Amino acid sequence: MRLKSQRRYLIGGIAALGVSTAAFAGAFANESNSPDVVKLGAGKASVEAEPLTAYEPLPTPSAKGEPTPVTSESPMAAGEASYYGSELAGNRTASGEVFDPQKLTAAHRTLPLGSEVRVTNPRNGKSVIVRINDRGPFHGNRVIDLSTAAARTIGLIRSGTGRVNLALMLD
């Protein structure tokens, strides 16, 4: 008798799971699966981002009353950043160049090599523009590995890691 009631509960649970899965699938059916495509030089890179119009700041007037040019950037991610330093100096990066910890470079898992990214430390508001020349980080939940010079610029040297916001430079 006990096995029959356990079987009924199991079948009822599986049916409820199926119904809830179908409901979630219907809710996400209208969502677009293709991310925005952003031109980067000669190539293209897919980045999950809002349309640029949602993020582009309005030009501020200069002293002469003319609007100052705005560099376009597309916010793309936030997460943990780390840096790598002199222990890797002289090694080849994924782009083929020799790693120099005093240059403003970084490693990212998926962005095209040569892409420029603004990395901002939200704790102090400091930011730096780095060029992606390597692949990584492959440790934990980190989103970017910075060179020593880039980490020093935004104040990550003492802590070694820190939360950052990333924005892809479009110009």
Task: Report on this structure.
It is a single chain. With 171 residues, this protein is an alpha+beta fold. It has helices at 2-28, 148-154, and strands spanning 36-40, 43-47, 73-84, 105-107, 116-120, 127-134, 142-147, 161-169. The longest helix has 27 residues, at 2-28. The protein is elongated and about 75 Å long. It starts with a helix and ends with a strand.
Sheet of most strands: 6 strands, mixed, barrel
Structural class: alpha+beta
Specify the number of helices.
2
Termini Cα gap:
72 Å
Q: Low-confidence parts, pLDDT < 50 over ≥5 residues? A: 30-62, 64-69
* Average predicted confidence as pLDDT: 77
Helicity, in percent?
Answer: 10-25%
Secondary-structure blueprint:
Layout: H1 2-28, E1 36-40, E2 43-47, E3 73-84, E4 105-107, E5 116-120, E6 127-134, E7 142-147, H2 148-154, E8 161-169
Parallel strand pairs: 3-7, 4-6
Antiparallel strand pairs: 1-2, 3-8, 4-7, 5-6, 5-8
For the structure shown, list the relevant keywords.
8 strands; 171 residues; two-stranded antiparallel ribbon; alpha+beta
Give a short synopsis of this structure.
The chain is of the alpha+beta class. It contains two helices and eight strands; from the N terminus they run αβββββββαβ. The N and C termini lie far apart (72 Å).
